């Protein structure tokens, strides 16, 4: 045991436990002799000493220059005793490399979104530090990106292996060859692997290409350029990278000498959201660009990654496409930009989007950045995006990897990688099941939320309709009251003009006619408005009846159409995973043995059958149960929504109609006020003229040529008094109507200001924008 322990003045390490092996070194886990701290010790092999001394020294020199969280930290350069060979002592990164992470079954189709973003941001930060120090790495690849895990469980990625690194200015070139085939810039590949184009020089841009390949690998779990037969098929590899079109990001040859499958997009099995893909893909296309005129500069690259990494993800669920969206908003993006991000992924125009968060409508079109007011949303509580138009996307099942064919024969060498492939696909199936369950749950939430919204709206409409109806019937009775007073007054004055009472300065007949005109025009105009109001009101009442159906909108909704947590699909997948894991382990062991005995071979055969069965069970579970039921749930949603969206639409139209009725009612009241005022003016002047009329005496009677009897005298006085009384009555009746109208106006003003307040109450951003208006924007 002790023979494996080596040491330097400050450190010891056990050579029986290598952390990894490279072309030029072995790396071991070691400890600080004084503190016991864990370290990684890089011990160089004989091959490394064949390099020129200046090259050997470079790795130490480069590492000494660097100090960054995303670059492995150099702790010491010491001499191993007794050999006196130099060793590099570094911080110990606990979780292997990015390559190891991608080799895990759950990451075989690429990293999950958050982890990918960490790789992108952190590796870029490390490279930026290199560029700031004018250093080119020349061997960037997942195997040279170490991973540690912080106390909060988050990964930290660090660039390592500076054996190929050197100082190089932006516009300088170099001649020597470094790197790993699959990650090599096509020009380097041509010279290093194909041994062509001798003497060709390269620039710092070769790191950008390697970064492109590394990020593609991290996003998809596969290399972007894959000739049939792999690494050995060098000519095709070079053809793919050198001849690809500019924005192509992958080229795969599936058969010997067969055509290349080019793609400008990340594959459907990639786990990244559509929102992130749309940001990453153009960046990858630029990195994987051979043409120096079209590729990006380091500065462009840093800016782009900075832009992606600094965005905030907002999660949204769109039931009409059965999809969970991730919207990457910039810090300053306002609501219209967020809506645009939704449009980009759903094709729903901004004006047709009804957005809801926690059951509350998100109505605002304000210029404030969404980050300042949008509540925290998570994939579990996303923004719900309803399409105001009953349009639906086709149901698309989540993409899963394809289980490979499993030949019945025992092939110990290839059965292990075959089982690993099945195991990786099984994980992608589990991910798909998880997504489906999440979408099912969100679908049920969406139906509940939309139904509540409709219920709320219909109650609100019922309330304002009640208000409007009361207002209309009041206005009608005031109108009748006012015009009957006017009529009475005109009749009284006419009667007076027929008598011989002549109030001084008052043309009684003229006044009577004037009142008659006010009565006729006022009554005609007001009756017109009132009739129009009432016909609109009738329409509104029947619309309200339809909307009230919405109060039970979700009555027929059955959440159990889709698979439910109680079906335990995820748990079933976990059981399949653990069973398959055992098969993978046993195949790995079988492969490590030289030969299988009869018994082992028999077991291997059983296991291979089991592997096949497990694949079939998983496929059946996802296809026949989860996907099938999710598509049924989606169909049910379409039916539900087509029905309720009409109710919502009627609500919007009724809303507009009610506003219209309010306006007309206000106009009616204004007209009534005008007629009332005119009538009151007449009343007042008549009253004052009549008040100045001389009391009736016996002498005057004959002068006026009346019949002169006592009874007729009494009748004249009585007539005058009667007219005075009548006018007094009209006056008080007019005052009453005016007071009622004033009250009605202030009530209406209060009501409409109440509505305004409702709109402005929470925040400007939650303002109600009628659908018609939103569309017009
Ligand atoms: N600081 C560290 N902490 C943990 N593991 C490490 C550390 N440094 C290196 N390793 C492991 O050792 C392996 C080899 O390290 P490194 O890439 O530096 O060696 P190399 O000989 O330069 O390799 P290459 O063939 O890429 O030139 C790494 O892939 C990793 O698995």
Characterise the protein shown here.
It is found in: Cytoplasm. It comes from Aplysia californica. One of its GO terms (molecular function) is kinase activity. It is a single chain. The protein is an alpha+beta fold and 777 residues long. The chain folds into 4 domains: 90 residues, Phosphorylase Kinase, domain 1 (2-Layer Sandwich), CATH 3.30.200; 210 residues, Orthogonal Bundle (Transferase(Phosphotransferase), domain 1); 77 residues, Phosphatidylinositol 3-kinase Catalytic Subunit, Chain A, domain 1 (Ubiquitin-like (UB roll)), CATH 3.10.20.90; 347 residues, Up-down Bundle (Substrate Binding Domain Of Dnak, Chain:A, Domain 2). The strands form 5 sheets. It has a 6-stranded antiparallel β-sheet, with helices on one face. Helix 10 runs antiparallel to helix 11 and helix 10 runs antiparallel to helix 12. The site of adenosine-5'-triphosphate has 23 residues, from strand 2, strand 3, strand 4 and strand 6.
What is the total number of structural domains? Answer: 4
**Ligand set:** adenosine-5'-triphosphate
| Main sheet attributes: strand count, strand direction, barrel closure | 6 strands, antiparallel
Indicate the structural class: alpha+beta
CATH architecture of the largest domain: Up-down Bundle
Sheet with most strands: strand arrangement: 1-2-3-4-6-5
Q: Round the Cα radius of gyration to an integer and report it.
A: 43 Å
* N-end to C-end Cα span: 78 Å
Key features of this structure:
alpha+beta; Phosphorylase Kinase, domain 1; Ubiquitin-like (UB roll); 16 helices; 18 strands; 54% helix; disordered C terminus; binds adenosine-5'-triphosphate
């Amino acid at each position: 045991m002790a023979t494996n322990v080596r040491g330097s003045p400050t450190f010891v390490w056990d050579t029986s436990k290598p952390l990894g092996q490279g072309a030029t070194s072995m790396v071991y886990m070691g400890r600080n002799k004084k503190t016991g701290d864990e370290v990684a010790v890089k011990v160089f092999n004989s091959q490394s000493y064949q390099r020129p001394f200046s090259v050997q020294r470079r790795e130490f020199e480069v590492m000494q220059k660097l100090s960054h969280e995303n670059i492995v930290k150099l702790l010491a350069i010491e001499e191993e005793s007794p050999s006196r060979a130099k060793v590099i002592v570094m911080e110990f990164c606990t979780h292997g490399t990015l390559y190891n992470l991608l080799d895990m079954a759950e990451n075989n189709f690429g990293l999950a979104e958050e982890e990918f973003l960490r790789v992108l941001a952190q590796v870029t930060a490390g490279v930026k530090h290199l560029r700031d120090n004018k250093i080119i790495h020349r061997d960037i690849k997942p195997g040279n990106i170490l991973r540690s895990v912080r106390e909060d469980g988050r990964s930290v990625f660090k660039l390592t292996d500076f054996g190929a690194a050197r100082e190089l200015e932006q516009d300088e070139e170099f001649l020597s060859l470094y790197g790993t085939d699959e990650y090599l810039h096509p020009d380097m590949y041509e010279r290093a692997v194909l041994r062509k184009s001798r003497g060709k020089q390269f620039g710092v841009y070769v790191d950008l290409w390697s970064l492109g390949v590394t990020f593609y690998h991290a996003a998809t779990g596969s290399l972007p350029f894959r000739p049939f037969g792999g690494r050995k098929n060098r000519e095709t590899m070079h053809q793919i990278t050198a001849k690809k079109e500019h924005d192509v990001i992958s080229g795969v040859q599936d058969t010997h000498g067969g055509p290349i499958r080019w793609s400008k997009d990340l594959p459907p099995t990639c786990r990244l959201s559509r929102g992130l893909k749309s940001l990453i893909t153009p960046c990858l296309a630029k990195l994987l660009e051979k043409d120096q005129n079209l590729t990006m500069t380091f500065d462009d690259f840093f800016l782009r990654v900075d832009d992606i990494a600094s965005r905030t993800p907002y999660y949204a669920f769109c039931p009409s496409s059965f999809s969970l969206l991730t919207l990457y908003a910039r810090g300053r993006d306002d609501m219209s930009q967020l809506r645009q991000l939704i449009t980009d992924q759903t094709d729903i125009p901004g004006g047709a989007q009804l957005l809801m968060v926690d059951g509350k409508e998100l109505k605002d079109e304000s210029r404030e950045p969404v980050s300042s007011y949008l509540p925290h949303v998570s994939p579990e509580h996303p923004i719900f995006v309803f399409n105001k138009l009953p349009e639906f996307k086709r149901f698309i099942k989540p993409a899963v990897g394809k289980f490979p064919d499993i030949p019945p024969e025992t092939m110990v060498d290839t059965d292990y990688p075959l089982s690993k492939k099945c195991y990786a696909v099984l994980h992608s199936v589990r991910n798909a099941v998880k997504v489906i369950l999440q979408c099912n749950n969100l679908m049920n939430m969406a139906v509940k939320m939309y139904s509540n919204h409709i219920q709320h709206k219909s109650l609100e409409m019922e309330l304002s309709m009640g208000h409007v109806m009361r207002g209309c019937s009041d206005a009608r009775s005031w109108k009748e009251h006012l015009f009957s007073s006017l009529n009475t007054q005109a009749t009284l004055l006419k009667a007076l003009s027929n008598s011989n009472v002549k109030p001084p300065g008052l043309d009684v007949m003229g006044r009577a006619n004037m009142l008659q005109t006010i009565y006729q025009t006022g009554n005609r105009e007001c009756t017109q408005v009132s009739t129009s109001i009432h016909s609109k009101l009738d329409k509104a009442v029947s619309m309200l009846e339809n909307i009230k159906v919405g109060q039970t909108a979700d009555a027929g909704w059955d959440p159990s159409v889709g698979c439910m947590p109680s079906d335990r699909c995820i748990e079933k997948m976990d059981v399949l995973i653990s069973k398959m894991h055992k098969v993978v382990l046993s195949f790995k062991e079988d492969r490590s043995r030289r030969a299988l005995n009869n018994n082992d071979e028999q077991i291997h055969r059983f296991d291979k059958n089991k592997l096949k069965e497990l694949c079939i069970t998983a496929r059946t579970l996802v296809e026949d149960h989860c996907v099938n039921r999710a598509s049924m749930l989606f169909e049910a949603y379409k039916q539900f929504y087509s029905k309720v969206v009409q109710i919502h639409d009627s609500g919007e139209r009724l809303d507009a109609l009610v506003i219209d009725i309010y306006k007309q009612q206000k106009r009616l009241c204004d007209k009534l006020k005008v007629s009332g005022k005119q009538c009151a003016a007449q009343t007042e002047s008549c009253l004052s003229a009549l008040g100045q009329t001389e009391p009736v005496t016996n002498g005057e009677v004959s002068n006026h040529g009346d019949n002169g009897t006592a009874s007729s005298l009494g009748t004249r006085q009585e007539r005058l008094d009667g007219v005075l009384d009548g006018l007094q009555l009209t006056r008080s009746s007019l005052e009453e109507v005016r007071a009622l109208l004033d009250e009605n106006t202030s009530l209406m003003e209060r009501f409409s200001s109440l509505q305004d307040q409702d709109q402005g109450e929470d925040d400007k951003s939650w303002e109600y924008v009628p659908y018609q208006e939103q569309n017009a924007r």
